[in-house]
Design brief:
The strands form four sheets. The chain has a three-stranded mixed β-sheet with strand order 1-2-7, with no helix packed on it. Strands 3-4 form a two-stranded antiparallel sheet. A two-stranded antiparallel sheet has the order 5-6. A hairpin with a 6-residue loop joins strand 8 and strand 9. It contains nine helices and nine strands. The protein is an alpha+beta fold. The protein is elongated.
Length: 232
């Protein structure tokens, strides 16, 4: 009922996400689908050629609890996560117990968790950071760092779609063209459509053999010339 749920975010807080699910599934069926899944975290770092990967089975139908379990089991960080959503908003609060260099801070950790447990979904969705933290932890000194804006930004482009089409293979691409005249690829994240016709397919797989006709648009001609330059 829920084969895929993906969220991607870069260091500039550009976010995109997508989900594949059975539109006819009930809420209970979607919740139960989590119990059969796997939570995977992939971190790409410019300084490391190999991405960091971590995977663990999901034993809860709560995304917040699954993330909490992930931090505790995979990252060895004692954590608590709270999430809330509405039709237009998503918000979250995460508490993490940092490695202790000095005396143990068990009492402070228990205090923070107890206060956070009083947080309602309405408060999490409507209060700004400073107000929310003051309401929860007004008896302690709270330092609030400058906020950063999260925005949706998709990373799809024509070159990536060409790579996807190339991975499909020339035989399958030509077969699809013969049946449907064009190949349509839709980005799962932003729903942008990319179209390829027979000339585009020929230019992709045989960039030095294509001879564009005069009725092709100038964009297609420039694209083919660019492919020829790259080939050289």
């Amino acid at each position: 009922h829920l084969p895929l749920l993906v969220a991607q975010c870069d260091n500039n807080l550009n976010l995109r996400a997508t989900a594949n699910f059975d539109i006819d599934a009930t809420a209970i069926e979607l919740e139960q689908a989590f119990n059969q899944g796997v939570l995977s975290l992939i971190v790409n770092h410019d300084a490391h050629p190999t991405p960091y990967r971590s995977m663990m089975p999901i034993h809860s139908n709560s995304i917040a609890q699954s993330i909490t379990n992930f931090f505790q089991q995979s990252e060895q960080l004692v954590s608590q996560v709270w999430l809330a959503t509405s039709d237009a908003t998503a918000a979250g609060l995460i508490l993490q117990r940092m490695p202790e260099k000095d005396a143990p801070q068990e009492e402070a950790w228990q205090y923070a968790c107890t206060m956070a447990q009083t947080l309602t979904q309405a408060e999490l969705l409507t209060l700004d950071n400073a107000t929310l933290l003051h309401r929860l932890f007004h008896e302690t000194d709270v330092r609030v760092f400058p906020s950063r804006t999260i925005q949706f930004k998709c990373r799809c482009n024509l070159d990536k779609m060409k790579s996807a089409l190339y991975a499909l293979g020339e035989a399958q691409a030509k077969q699809h063209i013969s049946m449907h005249k064009t190949i349509e690829i839709t980005c799962d994240f932003c729903r942008q459509n990319y179209y390829f016709d027979a000339v585009d397919v020929m230019a992709l797989f045989h960039p030095n053999r294509i001879e564009p006709t005069l009725d092709k648009s100038i964009d297609i001609i420039n694209e083919i010339n660019l492919l020829k330059d790259v080939k050289k």
